[in-house]
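Worked example 2:
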Amino acid sequence: MGTMVEFKRPDGQGVQGYLAEPAGSAGAPGVVVIQEWWGLNAQIRGVADRYAAAGYVALVPDLYRGKSTVEAAEAEHLMSNLNFGDAAGQDVRGAVQYLKARCPKVGVSGYCMGGALTLLAAVNVPGADAAVVYYGYPPLEFIDPAKIRIPLLAHWATGDEFFAIAGVDKLADMLRAGGVNFEFHRYPAKHAFANETQVGAARLPTTEYQPEAAALAWDRTLAFFGKHLR
């Protein structure tokens, strides 16, 4: 459904990305989709395809520069070598600018590691119009609520062993004190509950696809983006 394209970062470097477009994309809003720690794989391309089917131009920046994996240890290695500030301030910002050249409004959404980067983008990327986080946050000292001027939606798993729900509560307190327009939803699920590949023997012990939670989160996401991007 989609195709690989190249876009420019603010510093002029080129980045590859997966672009999925709806039929008759003229005037359609855009969404930058940020990968999990696995990389730009078939699953996250599928998320972009779903956005395209819902009427959005979706772009997944290739943060790992062509690398992806199904092994947790390698994924952790790739993620730990990623410069988060550079990824949010340059790769994601460049992706937003690329979509802004053709879309009237652009949202940002990410999963796990991509959720943390979505929050950093909400703080640091001018031009984004709304953000949706799926079960991921960076160290909270990197979040300056005073700089978040866009509406924010987030989906959290109460049984998340990677991103403790206590941190979610602290983040909510920070955003509330900072006057951010935000909406948090909590689901009785494990980490990566919206990732349909995390089933059976393929999943980590700490992750599990939860179809009911995934469907509810997707419906809420589309309603939120529909309100703020259309």
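The beta strands are 3-8, 14-20, 30-34, 57-61, 106-111, 130-134, 152-157, 182-187. The chain has a mean pLDDT of 97.
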